[in-house]
Amino acid sequence: MFLDPDSKWAQRLNPVLFLLPALTIYIVFAIYPTYSVIEYSFTDWDGISPEREFIGWANYQRLFSDKIFWEAFRNTFVWSGVIIVINVGLGLVIAAMLARVWKARLLIQTCIVLPVVISPMAVATIWRWMYQPTGVINQVLESIGLGGFATPWLGSPDVVLYALALAHSWSTIGLSVIIFLAGLQAVDEDLYEAARVDGANALQQFRFVTMPALRPVTAVVFILTLTQSFKVFDIVWATTQGGPIRFSEILSTYMYKRGALENQYGYGSAIGVSLLVIVSIATIVYMQIQNKEDR
Amino acid sequence: MLGRWILLFILGITAALMAAPLILTVFTSLKPTTELVNPAWYPPIDMTFEHYVRVWTEGGFSRYFFNTLVISVIDAIVMIFIASMAAYAMVFIDFRGKIFLQILFLIGLMIPVTAIVLPLFQIVRSFGLLNTHLGVILADLALAVSVFVFMFTSYFAGVPKALHEAARIDGATEFQIYRRVVMPIATPAVVTTALLEFLWSWNDLLLRLLLMTRDEMRTLSVGLLNFQGTMTRDVTGLSSGTVIMAIPVVLLFLFFQRHFVRGMTSGAVK
Predict the structure, then answer these.
(1) Which residue of chain B has the CA closest to A137?
(2) Tell me, which fold does domain A78-126+158-294 have in CATH?
(3) Greater model confidence, B100 or A216
(4) Domains of chain B, first to last
(5) What does the pLDDT look like over A110-167, one tens digit per residue?
(6) Among A65, A173, B5, B212, which is most buried by a count of CB atoms within 10 Å?
(7) How far is CA A31 from CA B61, B74, B80, B107, in A?
(8) How do the residues of chain B divide into helix, strand and coil, expressed in percent and rounded to 5?
(9) Which residues of chain A are within 8 Å of residue B210 when distances are taken between CB atoms?
(10) What distance in Å separates residue B259's CA from the closest CA in chain A?
(11) ipTM exceeding 0.85?
């Protein structure tokens, strides 16, 4: 800036000046904690005392024999599975229908995408209220004669995880729909014309034209939904905190309990590392698919 | 033709179901307590704003709102600068180690915030930044910066190199080119960054729960969580709080829907 812009010093200094603010913050508050979480996971530490005792793989051994960890692990997969089925399956169907409609399209799309911007905390409050034993969902069931299905949604062990997954899907499916819609715009309209000439009905068109053309996009939405659902903390914490008992305990809430609330920083970090590994692998797969698509 | 109408009908129901939870929440927040015995889908007859007033003043939501606004606005503004500057260097300036930096930023796309909150808490504490807005802001920026560096990088990659060359030959410094040539044509990327970072910051709970323990520093998400914990039965208060938290982002979304849709599809990895 003050130097002659063509001088050797300016050439060397420029990239440093441009990158310094972003890099400093990024390394101190993102890269370093990532390194630390791995380091912590090999220690026994309460998060306060100056001494961190190195204990090797002990935390991971404990993890393998920890029944609650495996429950949370299983729950996280079930939770993600339900969300994937809804967001990918239903998301694709809604997008395919929306692409064929012109009237009121913006209004419909707005209604579907709007929940995406609502905070998980607000989503939790809304759905907790709707799921109450006397809440609106049970009221509706009773008024249409299906009172037998009414249940305290967040209080029943068999239902709670699915009920929460539904709430999460409500607030995220809009994202899948808009990604699918973008993919659909790239599908050649002539293919539908050809299929129609060959006598294919709407369902057959969907099966033989839309679905094959959308395979790469579907893979993207699949992995994206997977990584996003693995990272969830807010909505579960704000509704059930993993309960009743541990029926909606997922990896993030379990880590928060052990690490932040019980001050078992070493063990909590080992849970964090397991989350880190799963999400990283899924993200790498995601980026590979997207790269292939861009080419 | 009939098919189209069936399609529209199904979509209409879907849209109504998707909108229902929000509409019901607004209904409840406007009902006087006496109307709560009615089914939830009854619109408020004797509309009242008393619950909003109550939550805003006694509930402390005015302070939460202000705290959230300050953090989100600063997050968005600072993010525009640091991400665009880093991306500028990555695209227009030659230097050694660029590949290494690219990989470093790529790692940021893979790190789930959830997994690293424990050490993050320790680092923020060691800087003495617990219960400060600055601590949360720095953490927010660090955890999202790589997304926006890549967003700006791909935008800048579409800017003709010749433009940069020409400015260099005219004797402009890199900083002048950044400010006068490149940034003015990067408005779409700037708008997307501002909107997404504001949204993420506004909505986050986990970091705020961990890093802000004193009531006067709390944001809306933590405020709402605590309100929910202590006033479980205060349905009208809770729905007013929810609506207060949702209004700003819903308005932003309705005004900038196009930008949001584009940004969310490209910034979706986070």
Answers:
(1) B40
(2) MetI-like fold (1.10.3720)
(3) B100
(4) 55-266 (1.10.3720.10)
(5) 999 999 999 999 999 999 999 999 889 999 999 998 888 889 999 999 999 999 999 9
(6) A173
(7) 34, 22, 20, 8
(8) 80, 0, 20
(9) 260
(10) 12
(11) yes
